[in-house]
Amino acid sequence: MKKFLMIAAMAALTLASCNNEAPKVDSAAAPAGSADGQKMAYVEIDSIMTQYKFCIDKKAELEKKGQNIENTLSSKQKNLEAAAAKFQQDIQANKYTQQQAQSVQAGLQRQGQDLQALQQRLTAEFAQEQDKFNQALADTIHGFIARYNKEKGFAFIFSKSGDNLLYADKAYDVTAEVINGLNKEYKPGK
User: Fold this and answer.
1) Which of 80, 87, 149, 170 is the most exposed place for a label (fewest CB within 10 A)?
2) Distance CA 122, CA 83 (A)
3) pLDDT tens for each residue of the chain, 190 residues long
């Protein structure tokens, strides 16, 4: 969808720049600040990410979960390393028979494999949560934009993130209106 809108905008700009005579626009038919009677706007995605309460809350929640995962894995890794170090000391002190040493070593290897499996599982679960957040964010924004645009009647509403638009006049920026509307609709705990 984004690529289509970008291609459509670039095609419109190319066609307009290829026309040698100045475009004739009926000022009564075309809204102020529009091209060929098409109202356009853009929304700064970076601003939504930093000012939309849903986004702020979910990011904090994900950061907390990520930190908990990191702490859990770090703790288990330290315990395994301590057990391996103790095993090395006991081996050097000849506290084990060869059969006992092999058994303890096999147990340490299983613990290492279990830790690796736990890390993979927690990482996959965390990635799924991030994907769910991203999808919920996109659905919320798209749903709001559709309702917002019923009143405003824009032909195009572009997303601006970083420098994906070469130039955007601030007159077309509806970011504050969108963020205010999103925040009004947001119900924490939903």
Assistant:
1) 170
2) 23
3) 333 333 333 333 333 333 333 333 333 333 344 556 789 999 999 999 999 999 999 999 999 999 999 999 999 999 999 999 999 999 999 988 899 999 999 999 999 999 999 999 999 999 999 999 999 999 999 999 999 999 999 999 999 998 888 888 999 999 999 999 999 999 987 5
Task: Judge whether 178 and 43 are in contact, CB under 8 Å.
Answer: yes
Beta bridge partners of 158: 42
Q: Which residue has the tokens 């702490």?
A: 71
Residue tagged 């090395």 (tokens): 88
Give the global pTM.
0.69
Alpha helices in the chain (DSSP H): 2-18, 45-51, 53-92, 98-152, 175-185
Q: What distance in Å separates the CA atoms of residue 123 and residue 115, rounded to the nearest whole number?
A: 12
38 forms beta bridges with: 35
What tokens appear for 159 in the block? 């997303």
Q: Find the helix or strand (DSSP H, E) in which 158 lies.
A: strand 156-160
